[in-house]
Amino acid sequence: MLKEFREFILKGNAIDLAVGVLIGAAFGDVVKAFTTGIINPLINAAGGKPDVSLKLWIFDLGVVVNAVLSLIIVGAILFFVFIKPMNRLKTMMEKKADAPGEPEIPADVKLLAEIRDLLKNKA
């Protein structure tokens, strides 16, 4: 059972799905921040509702920058903690699987060896 779980995790599908969900959630936060910080103030300034506060800026860029930085940080952490080690582990597993004990002899070399053996038997 543990072996099956290990094979499932090493396939990478579970890791790819988890990374996709986390990046999607972080990107959703960026879209939400852009909407509330940039789009909504533009609509409000165009006549949606009057803003009587004495703000110098109508845009809330801090929310957008915060969401973008969060996306970059989450992406970097996922890459360096999960993706990079998984890729390294996959290449190591492939090298172990590709390393045969004895190399296969080409067909022409086998044919020459048979001819040599037949000539030895005739002599």
Radius of gyration equals 31 Å
Low-pLDDT parts are none
- Sheet with the most strands? none
Number of helices: 4
Determine the mean pLDDT. 83
The tally of strands reads: 0
Written overview of the protein:
The structure is a single chain. The protein has one domain (2-122). It is built from four helices and no strands. The protein has helices at residues 2-11, 13-48, 61-98, 107-122. The radius of gyration is 31 Å and the shape is rod-shaped. The model has no long low-confidence stretch (mean pLDDT 83).
Quick synopsis:
Belongs to the MscL family. The chain is mostly helical and 123 residues long.
Q: Which structural traits does this protein have?
A:
about 120 residues, mainly alpha, about 80% helix, membrane, ion transport, transmembrane, MS_channel
What is the topological layout?
Blueprint: H1 2-11, H2 13-48, H3 61-98, H4 107-122
Membrane topology: Multi-pass membrane protein
Function: Channel that opens in response to stretch forces in the membrane lipid bilayer. May participate in the regulation of osmotic pressure changes within the cell.
GO molecular function, one term: mechanosensitive monoatomic ion channel activity
